[in-house]
């Protein structure tokens, strides 16, 4: 994950969000940090026209993972905990 993030000059969390969206799944993100909220808009979400006006406050660039990167992430060992989950608090 770190290697893919470094290649795209982004964060691991952006890679994860992009993989989820490119896999055809929805994702709900939460953050108290303006920087994180802005970072989350780099993920290529499909946006309804009605909601587009709400997003004009953010400048976004779109991250696109290659097919090879998508497969590499999908093949990660799911039995290995990569983060410690405490509900909304991620350590």
Automatic annotation (TrEMBL):
Keywords: NADP, Oxidoreductase. GO terms for molecular function: oxidoreductase activity, acting on the CH-OH group of donors, NAD or NADP as acceptor. The keyword Oxidoreductase applies. It comes from the Eukaryota. This is Protein CBG05425. It comes from Caenorhabditis briggsae.
């Amino acid at each position: 994950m770190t290697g893919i993030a470094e290649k795209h000059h982004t964060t691991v969390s952006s890679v994860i969000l992009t993989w989820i969206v490119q896999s055809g799944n929805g994702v709900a993100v939460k953050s108290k940090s303006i920087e994180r909220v802005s970072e989350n808009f780099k993920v290529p979400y499909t946006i309804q026209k009605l909601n587009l006006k709400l997003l004009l406050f953010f400048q976004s660039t779109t991250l696109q993972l290659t097919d090879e990167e998508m497969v590499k992430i999908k093949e990660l060992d799911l039995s290995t905990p990569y983060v410690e989950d405490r509900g909304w608090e991620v350590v």
